C-alpha cells in the first residue's frame, strides 16, 4: 500500500497532466488527437517528480509547482518530438513516435505548437524571472541539438559529448531547480548550489540512459540498442574508442555501421566501458546527494537519497 508521500506525488502528477491537457487543448481535431496520444504514452514525468520532491521540501506552494512542472514537461516533450523527427525514430517507449504515426509535416507543426503554447503559458507566470529561466533553457536545448548534429559522430569526443549532455539534458534540470530557488527566495549561493544539483542530476540521468540502451526494454522502457541503431556514439562507446588505437577504432566503427550490436556490447564490456560509465554516473549521483544535503532536513534526506539512487541507477 502506498504511503502518504507516494499518494501525494501521484496526485501531483495527475494535476500536472491535467494542466498540460488544458494548456495544449485546441479547436483543431488533429492537434487534440496527437495531444491525447501523447498524454496516454508520456513517460515517468521525472522533471515533475524533481519539482515536487524538492519544491515541497523548500516550502513552495503546490499551485506554483504544478505550473512550473507543466511548463517544463511541455518544453521537454517538444524537444522529444523534434529529436524523433531529426533521428527518423519509429518508436519511443515502445510506442510509435508522432513522426511515425502522423508524418513529418504534422510532427513538425505539433512540436512548434507545443513551443508556442508553452511560451504563452510562461508569459502568464507572475514571476518574470521564472519565465526568463525556462525560456533560456529552451534556447540551450535547441543549441544542444545543433552541437550534436555538427559533431556528426565522426568528430564526437568525450568532452564534446559532455557538452551535448549539458545542453540537451542537464540544462532543463538545472533550470527547474534554479526556479525552485527563486520561488523559495534562496540567496545566490544556494541558488548556485541548486543549479549545480540540476546539472549533476542531468548528467547522471543521461549516463544512465546510455547504459539503458544496452539493457532489455522491459526493465528500462527504452527499446534495446535504440541509440546504436540510430548510429549515436554514447558515453560507453566513446570511452572505449578513446583507448583504442586507430586500427581498433576503425574495426569497432565498422561493427557499429554494420549494426553488430551483440559484438559491440561484448567489446564494451570486455574493455570496461560499462564499468567506467557507471563510475562516472555514480560520481554525479554522489554530487546530487551532497548538494541535496544542503537543503533537505535530516529526517527527509534518506527519502531523497532513495529517490536519487532509484531514479538514476540502471
CATH superfamily: Farnesyl Diphosphate Synthase
- Overall geometry comes to globular
Mean pLDDT equals 90
Q: What is the CATH architecture annotation?
A: Orthogonal Bundle
Rounded to the nearest angstrom, the distance between the terminal CA atoms is 25 Å
Strand content: under 5%
Instruction: Tell me the name of the CATH class.
Output: Mainly Alpha
Helical stretch tally: 16
Strand order of the largest sheet: 1-2
How many domain units? 1
Fold and architecture overview:
The protein is an all-alpha fold and 314 residues long. It has a single domain, classed as Orthogonal Bundle (Farnesyl Diphosphate Synthase). The chain contains 16 helices and 2 strands. The chain has a two-stranded antiparallel ribbon. The chain is globular and about 60 Å long.
